[in-house]
Amino acid sequence: MEEVVVVGIGAHPWGKFPEKNFIDLGAEAVRNALADAGVSWTDVPAAVSGIYVWGGTDALNAGSAIAGRLGETGIPILNVFNMCATATSAFRSAYHVVASGEQDMCLAIGVDVSPPGFFGFMGKPDPADTDYLRFRMVGVTNPAYWAMEARKRMEEHGTTERHFALAKVACSKHGSLNPDALYKRVYTEEEVLASPLVCDPLRLFEICATRDGAAAVLLCSAKKAKELTGKPVRVAGVGLGSSLYGDPTLRLGTLAAPAVGSAPLLSESYTSAQMAYKMAGIGPEDVDFVEVPDNSSWHYLQYLETLGLCEPGEADKLLESGETMIGGRLPVCPSGGASSYGEAISAQGLLQICELVTQLRGDAGARQVEGARVGLAQTYGQLGNSSTAILAR
Amino acid sequence: MPTTTTAPGVKGLPEVEGLFAPTGDGDGVRLCVGRCAECGAVFFPSHAQLHVPNCSGGPVEEGLMAPTGTLVSYTIQHYTPPDPYPTPTDWEPVGIGTVVFAEQGLQVPGQLTGIDLDDLRVGITVETAAATLYVDEDGVERQTYKFRPVPPAGSTGSTGSNETGAA
Questions:
Q1: Low-confidence spans in chain B with pLDDT less than 50
Q2: Which residues of A touch B70 (CB under 8 A)?
Q3: pLDDT of residue B156
């Protein structure tokens, strides 16, 4: 296997852009990544692109549509969809294109234009589809699922509403230091606790917004990177996980789960992270900073435990102690996370990876994690798939 | 067993067939589950099958969830759910709970009814009942399942807690 490095990162800002379509966003992200690497589009030998499901036929073939804008060159383009894990799944496949020696470079692309408000049902009315049933028969929204997991956590570990508020405060402080974040306001605990309850105990400021965005990363063999001028960052591990039988997580879009777990909560994320750790030859104790999928404050806390970064029930104390802040033992979401960007589902994982590269290059400015050598980016896993990337310098 | 017929005491029709069946006691219903005869895993709905690894996949037998369970978590959803929920125009915050049916080994989410939202507590016993989801253009009540606290002993309408599930 070839050693693989990242040599270029680029993004289109996160936000709402009614005057633009996904091709505008994706092409800008790719152009920025190529400029960062000092590589021409015509020198890119392969690409893997996340697709998204709200944009019609072109969006189901997003990589090819973006390539059309950049000028078709006949390269192999793989279009992938893996729910919340889409972008980092594209990254993983791009990694393998280079690691296998098939190509010396490969571009990974993620783009999303999200519908506003609560995520609704995306298919046709079909009683055989449990996602239809949960909306039609119960009206249970995604934040309601998260809220019920959050209350279980309160019962089991003594987590309080204050802990959920502190997670938002922590992310907002980091986001305020990030010139690329969409939301840069620092929130106080009191302000978060005064925001409206969406799904008790989770409040409006504790649930990330849906936004549009695009990100791209150029991967390259370590040998090829010597011909380029940028600061390469090594891909130490990539993971892709699916669920384990007996996972007690009440997954979005389902109406039942085991009452007593015989597998970890968020088992798809657990298996993905374990795979990435094994490949990197490291353990959680070697991670210097982490980008978790902070879709809600419950995610922020739970993922620290799912990733093995602290013991079950210890994330609340870790957060309270300040150790998850930049300057602490384990900075969490130094970018500000989805809390500060909003979530563009099919692009979010590559945005996280861009942050890892920025930090490991030492280019993160006011939000720099000093001395960072190993960063981990983890996606959520809505329907039983999740992905992980570990980068190192 | 799944049915589309109206049972005594149950007005209206299930919005979706095969999810719940009348107990015959008032508006009480039981959720319809599937149970794999080979690996023993229990499913709700019966077609949402997560088998034990290496199971050949069946046969899956139809059964019924216990009529009562334990509320292990809940939320109060303050905003109107999106389509395709047949949203009433006068949406009020609704309790949604996770109920554990220990005998079947499953936890199931459902709307909560018959309880003041301020009285929601983890650990209470709830029963499963048919409840109106909306009234269709023919004036027929279309029903879903909901969970409500088991009435105090001695009051009418309780299905009792000694009944066992068939699954």
A1: 1-5, 9, 157-167
A2: none
A3: 52
Nearest to B83 among A121, A149, A257 (CB): A121
Domain assignment of residue A168, yes or no: yes
pLDDT tens-digit readout, A268-321: 999 999 999 999 999 999 999 999 999 999 999 999 999 999 999 999 999 999
Instruction: Provide the residue range defining the domain that includes A381.
Output: 130-207+236-392
Number of domains in chain A: 2
A261 and A320 co-located in one domain: yes
Q: What is the residue extent of each domain of chain B?
A: 13-149
pLDDT of residue A56: 84
The reply to whether A121 falls in a domain is no
Do residues A346 and A352 lie in contact, with contact meaning Cβ atoms separated by under 8 Å?
no
Cβ neighbours of B2 (radius 10 Å): 15
- DSSP-derived 3-state class of residue B155: coil
Size of interface A-B (CB pairs under 8 A): 135
Partner residue opposite A133 with nearest CB, options B45, B76, B104: B45
Q: Do B144 and A137 touch (CB under 8 A)?
A: yes
Nearest to B107 among A125, A144, A256 (CB): A256
CB pair distance less than 8 Å for B19 and A202: no
ipTM of the complex in this document: 0.94
> Same domain, yes or no, for A96 and A9?
yes
What is the C-alpha to C-alpha distance for residues B37 and B56, in angstroms, rounded to an integer? 10
- Is A123 within the bounds of a domain? no
Which helix H or strand E contains A267, and what residues bound it? helix A267-280
Q: Do B82 and A121 touch (CB under 8 A)?
A: yes
Q: What is the mean pLDDT of residues A99-119?
A: 89
Alpha carbon separation from B147 to A157, B30, B98, B104, B152 (Å, rounded) = 26, 11, 9, 17, 15
- Collapsing DSSP to helix, strand or coil, B132 comes out as strand
- Assess if residue A125 is contained within a domain: no
Q: Which residues of A touch B15 (CB under 8 A)?
A: 136-137
Same domain, A83 and A188: no
Whether residue A56 is found in the same domain as residue A139? no
Q: B-chain residues within 8 Å CB-CB of A117?
A: 82
Instruction: State residue B10's pLDDT score.
Output: 52
Taking CA–CA distances from A258, the nearest residue in chain B reads B106
Q: Do B15 and A257 touch (CB under 8 A)?
A: no
Model pTM score: 0.94
Positive/negative CA dihedral, A299, A304, A310, A315: negative
Which candidate from A130, A135, A199 shows the least CB-CB separation from B85?
A: A135
Tens digits of residue pLDDT in A194-247 = 999 999 999 999 999 999 999 999 999 999 999 998 899 999 999 999 999 999
